[in-house]
Structure formats: C-alpha cells, structure tokens
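Continuing the batch. This is chain 6 of the set; chains 1 through 5 are on the previous pages. Same settings as before, nothing changed between runs. Recording input and output for traceability.
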Amino acid sequence: MKMDDTIFLFLCILLVWLMTPGLSLFYGGLVQSKNVLNTVMQSMAAIIIVTFTWVVIGFSLSFGHGNDWIGNFDFIGLQHVGFNTNVQFSPHIPFALFMLFQMMFCTIAVSILSGSIAERMRFIPFTIFIFIWVIMIYSPVAHWVWGGGWIQQLDALDYAGGTVVHITSGVSGLVLAIMIGHGKKVEKLQPNNLLITLIGGIFVWIGWYGFNTGSAFTLNDIAVISFVNTIIAASGGAFSWLILEYFSNKKLSLLGLLSGVLSGLVTITPAAGFVNYLSAYIISMIGGIACYFVVNSIKEKLRYNDTLDAFGIHGVGGVIGAILTGVFQSHKVNKDILDGLIYTGHLHTIWIQCIAVIVVVLYSIIITFIIGKTLSIFMSLATTVEEDKKGLDQLVHGEKAYFYGELNKLHKRY
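Output for chain 6:
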C-alpha cells in the first residue's frame, strides 16, 4: 500500500462528493422558485439512497467476482471491504477507499438523472425508482465496464464514466421524462436564480478534477494527464458552445458558458487518461457543438420533456466522448491501450466503442421503461395539476426557498 496514493484518493473522494450538492444547486437555480427545494432534495436524497443501496448490494453487484454480466455477493454488506488492498481493483490503496470512490460515481449519476424529471415527477416514486435503478441498471453496467464484465473483456475504454455514469443517467432520464411528460405542456421556463446555478456549477467543475484525476487510482503520469485534459476540456466545451450561441442570437449567456463547460467535461470523461492534450481540446469542442445542437435545436423540434437537459448534455456528451475515445486514444499516452483511428487508420477501436455504447443505450432504455411501467401500476409518477400549479416545495416538503410575498407585505405595512 502506498500512503501518498491513499491520501490522493481520499482527497479525490471529497472532491467528487462535492459534485452532488453542487449539481443540486446548479439544478435548483434553473427551476421555478416554487420547486427549488424539491429539485435540491432529489439530488440530496440521492446521497442517502445510493449509500444504502451501494453498501447493501450495489458494490457487490458491480465489483463482485461473478460472471460477464453481473457481480456475485462476495462483498454484500461490504464484507471483505476494509483497509487492506485488493489485487484486482485497488493494489495501491485500501479497498474501502476504492468502494467509496465508486459510490460517489453512482451518487452523481442519480443526481444527473434527476435533471430530466425536475418539477415533473413525484418525490416518493422518484426515490423508489432510483433505488431500483442502482441495482438494475447502474450496477450491471459498472460491472460490464470496470468489474471484469464483457465490455472490459472487449477492450472498450471508459476512463472515468462516460458510459457508466453519463450515458446510463442521461438515457434513463430521457426515457423517464418522456414517460411522465405525456400530456404535460412542454414549456421553456426562466431560471429563478442564475447565481445559485453558478455556485453549483463551480462546485461541479472543481469536483470533476477529482472525478477524472482520481480514476487513475494512483498519483502517476496518467493522473496528471487526465487532470490537464479535464482543465482543457472545460474551456474547450465552453468555447465552442459560446461561439454557436453568439452566431445564433448575438448574445453570450452565463448559462451557455456553464452548459458548455459541462459538455466539455462530460465528453472528455471517458477519454481523459487515454488521449493527448490537443485531442482533449478537439474532443471537448466537438462535444460542446453536439450538445448545443441537441439542447437548442433537436429538443425544440422533437418537443420532449428533458427539463434541465440531462440527456442533452450528459447522455449526448457521454456518447460522443465514448466514440471519440476510439478515434483519439493513444498508446504513447497510455501504455495499456491500443492506438486509435487517427494513428492506425483502422476502425477497430471505434467499432468496439460503438458496440459498448449501443448496448448500454439500449439496455438503459429497456430497463428504465420496465421499471417506470411497473411503478406506474402501483403509484402515479407524474406530478398532479395542483402540484404543478402551487409548487412542490410547499405541498410536498412544507417549506419555501424564498419569501418574496411575505417580504412585500411587510414592506407595504411599514
């Protein structure tokens, strides 16, 4: 065991943990003022529910020594997960830290998913859904990609979760949003507080450095490369997004900048430890362009209810990043991988990445639909007319984020 690697991953875990509260603020500033607390609660509840699910069974299904499709019960209840290392997954660090780092990934995936159904899904059905989602979608896919499953054996690459985190959450969020959005008006609502969104975006941005850098699990050259690539990609995504935004409406918005940053970060995530710096910039710029068009053009034409563009940024960015990894991956950067298309001229690496992406997308669609349909037999998933009108904060949580009306009355009184 290496103490410097242990300290390194410990700090990265704290950074990644910040991403979920950060995303709750990011989303909270974008919804209507009457639904702020409900939106924040969806992300914060993810911490509670994912922790329980991951400890009891999720980690074992993801990283237990099962078969090509699912892990076994070796680590159920975190048995055999302690300070000692694990030869397969954490040769330099305590196995318990590896478990926590992976739990942070699962938590942020659930938080991302909540962005698609913000203001439109009832809270209790949402909590039940994500409990089942972690077991039936996230854990199997994590096993496929990182736990010794068939995608890992195929040599498809996913450095820090482009497939496992972003494609699963983005695609599942879209399917769930479409299921509960049927019959509801598709309307573009104004954010209630962009400064809150900015603060949340900063936390997510900072946390992403731990997200990608920590995925090396040791403080080596790959960790440094992924750190630099992550910084580059955030700017690359924002740059391309803002250029398109300016040519479209002659304005440069704060929300556009933050959306571009997230697009770049998502797109580089599967490739961060596998590509050189110039490739990282190209990948992130392509990601910013693709996500911009999906959010601002395709979404409006198809009129689907992806409330806060979780699919448009995370789902699309994850797909683009995973495929482009096969284009730009470099053996010179990472000795454990093959060269990609631009170095060999062969489509082999792209074909492998596409297989992984297609299967994960289809699996996420089918299982999400099954979970949603099953739950809808026992309870209503969509918010009621009264909840849409009065707001979820007061009716569901008995609280308010803002007290504008009371302050105005007090002002008039005095």
